[in-house]
Every structure is written in C-alpha cells, then in structure tokens.
Amino acid sequence: MFRRISPGIRGNRKSSRQARQAGSTWVEAALVIIPFFALLFGIVDFGTSLFIRSTVQNAVASGLRYAVTYQTKAGHCMDDSIRLATQENALGFLGDTTTPNTTAITVNYYSASNLSTPLAGSSNQPGNVVEVTGTYQWQWLSSLSGVFGSQRNTTPLNITAYSSDRLGGLAPGVVPPCR
Asked: Is the pTM above the cut of 0.85?
C-alpha cells in the first residue's frame, strides 16, 4: 500500500528563496513606512499651523468688530475689553478669557490722515482708525528638517494677524469710554 507522509514534515518548510523574500519584505516595509509617516506628520503639522493662523485672524476680526461699537466689559476700559473679546474668539491660542493678554494682542489707534504713527492718550475718538493685532508662536510638532537631537531646528513659526477699521460716530453728547 501507499505510505502516507505526515504534512508537518514537508508542509512547514520554506525554501531558501521564500526565506530571502520574507527578509526583504521587512526591509521594503521599513523603506516605505518611514517616509509615509514623515509625510503624514508634516501634513498634520502644516495643517495645524494653518488652522491656528485662521483662528487668530478670525479672533482679531471679531475683536475689531467689538471695538467699533465702543462697548466695554464690566471693570475694563476699551483696550482691555477689545483684548478680552479677541481672546474669547481665539479658542485659547491667545490666552484665557479672564485677564487681558497685553503681550499677544495689541490695540493701536491712528489718525485717518497719518496711518504710520500710532496715537497716544485718549485716541479712541470717532473717525480715528483702530487696529487690532494678534500674535502667536507655533512650535512645530515634527522635525521637517530631518535632523534630530541637539542640532534640530527649533525655530517657531510666528503667526501675526492684523485687522483695522475706522471708528464710527457716537450719539450727540456721548463721550468715548476710557482707553
């Protein structure tokens, strides 16, 4: 009769060619996965910086819309109220909404005839131009330079957004709030 050969002896063996191909599969996978994740992290990092830029620009525009109405928040003058209104729309990028952030948000007033020199004092008068500026420093998540360790470039991306408009008129007999 026929002699039956056990499948465990013959079925589990790989030829030397299959063994070489299995090793090269891991090398090929590493050569594809590393650039793929570098590209993926770069896209996420760049996309996040664009999102922050858009958010800061929207917050500054909201602060400017608040400025031209001459409104103030309780216990604050006009400049700090503008800063707080800007921070409320910045999703936390320009600071919390409890105290005005004077380093990240600046408010300047200009004469309509001279837009190069900011005005001092109580310059929030009707007809003057108000400019709200928001700045944020984005620390990159990934090293896009390809250098790791102590030589890695850690220069942040400085995001600055501006918005300006002319202050409208006030009702007769109404004075602008404190600056």
From this structure: no
